């Protein structure tokens, strides 16, 4: 079993870290002083049963409205086939065919296992698609002007530059070597087709 990703919420200076993916072998935390690196690591330490949260552990934004149902840390564990065979049978009921197990620890010390919900994922994807469609519609004139500008300038230079943004996965990033992104890919492919 290995930790796949971590999310810290409502802990000291961290309001919401978002989902942080961890590498198989090494993960580096980089940031300026007083940006939450130590609190991120401390939050991970609190995942054990022996740690009892105190009011001072809560983010300053919610310290006035203390409630037991406040999520602090979620850890996603990846189980291999051998581990699935040796764990309790309830794991199979929770995970189904998935190999990722998400466990959240709350302010009151309770733990909850989160079952992956395909409907929520589908809704999230639909929301993203709607956001992209809206952004494209709202920026239609800007996009057209951008393409008109490209048509008036050195086309080959721009095509070479666009191709340099292509990533190994076939998508396009914002700069060479950066992870691909659906928005950048959409515009790059459209420009290259024309």
Tell me, briefly, the overall form: elongated
Which structural class is indicated by helix and strand composition? alpha+beta
Strand content: 15-25%
DSSP helix fraction: 40-55%
The CATH architecture assignment of the largest domain turns out to be 3-Layer(aba) Sandwich
If helices are DSSP runs of H or I spanning 4 or more residues, what is the number of helices? Answer: 7
> What's the CATH C level of the largest domain?
Alpha Beta
Largest sheet: 6 strands, antiparallel
CATH superfamily of the largest domain: P-loop containing nucleotide triphosphate hydrolases
N- and C-termini, Cα separation:
48 Å
Rg, alpha carbons: 22 Å
Uncertain regions: pLDDT < 50 for 5+ in a row?
none
How many independent structural domains? Answer: 2
Give me the strand/helix succession. Answer: EEEHEHHEEHHHH
Q: Count all strands and give the number.
A: 6
Quote the CATH topology of the largest domain. Answer: Rossmann fold
Please tell me the overall pLDDT.
78
Keywords:
single chain; 194 residues; alpha+beta; Rossmann fold; 2 domains; 6 strands
Overview of this structure, please?
The relative contact order is 0.10. The protein folds into 2 domains: 113 residues, Rossmann fold; 76 residues, no CATH class. It is elongated and about 65 Å long. The protein is 40% helix and 18% strand. With 194 residues, the protein is of the alpha+beta class. Strand 1 and strand 2 form a beta hairpin. Strands 1, 2, 3, 4, 5 and 6 form a 6-stranded antiparallel β-sheet that branches. It contains 7 helices and 6 strands.
